[in-house]
Design goal:
single chain, about 300 residues, alpha/beta, Nucleotidyltransferase, domain 5, 6-stranded mixed sheet, 3-stranded antiparallel sheet, 6 helices, 11 strands, about 30% helix
Length: about 300
Amino acid sequence: MSGNSHKLKLGKISHNDGKLQQVRIVPSYGRYVIEVVFKCEQEKEIKRSEKQLNEWIFEPKRVMGIDLGVDNLATIIDNMGLKPLLIKGKWLKSINQYYNKLRAEYMSILRNGKGPKEGKFNTTRLISLDRKRNNRVMDFLHKASAKVVEIAKERTIDTIIIGKNEGWKMEVEMQKTSKQAFIQISYATFIGMIRYKAERHGIQVIVREESYTSKSSFLNHDPIPTYGGENQTYFSGYRSSRAFYKIKGSKILIHADVNGALNIVRKHTKDVFKGLERKQFLQSPRKIIIMKKRKAKLKATA
């Protein structure tokens, strides 16, 4: 081993950052990433074991429900009757679509005329493309999860309930491109970001099964069965378009994702919407754009 030593400056560490736990060097997409890990403890912080991950720490009172999707990454409702919110996910969808297109082009050139066991399957260009896409997705999810927690704090929420389907809605009816985008969005990563950011501030995060929450009518108190059950259930409405859920035999429309988010909370709590008027559930949601949609620049040089 050479006697030469090299120093890498990481910048100043503030006492506000917490207690330094470790510095680790992790290989990532053909490069090495230095991760500096701090231990930060706050007075209200919720601490859980793995077994307690989705158990109630306390009885929920001021509740936020989140329905995850593609065009609307997170649809947010609460039980105070405040205006629903939509965190738009089209920027993320655009990044994924452009990444898929470029990767297919590069792979076509790389594998042209080669047998299944011949030649290379990866290049510096492909590694660079993967890295850029991953960095942009992680940046977006960090900003979006921080926004969710900011909203929760502004509304003095004590509990966030996030709906999750096993297989991430592989069986839902949607166009092939939309399903591909849905699968490629790392919802587990997004949920994890929301959890650790929220529970640092004493807001408990519960992830629960969300099957049939988009088919049931919240306004009509339809039963919400569990996925895989054999019981046949009658639903009072249906999704009449991408945006709206319609009550059968009436002119009432409710935003479809808002209806789903309300049902996620209703499915796992009791009486938290008591005292609210029907018109409060029919409010038009407000859009929140984390990043403006623009042509993605992911091209990687060889």
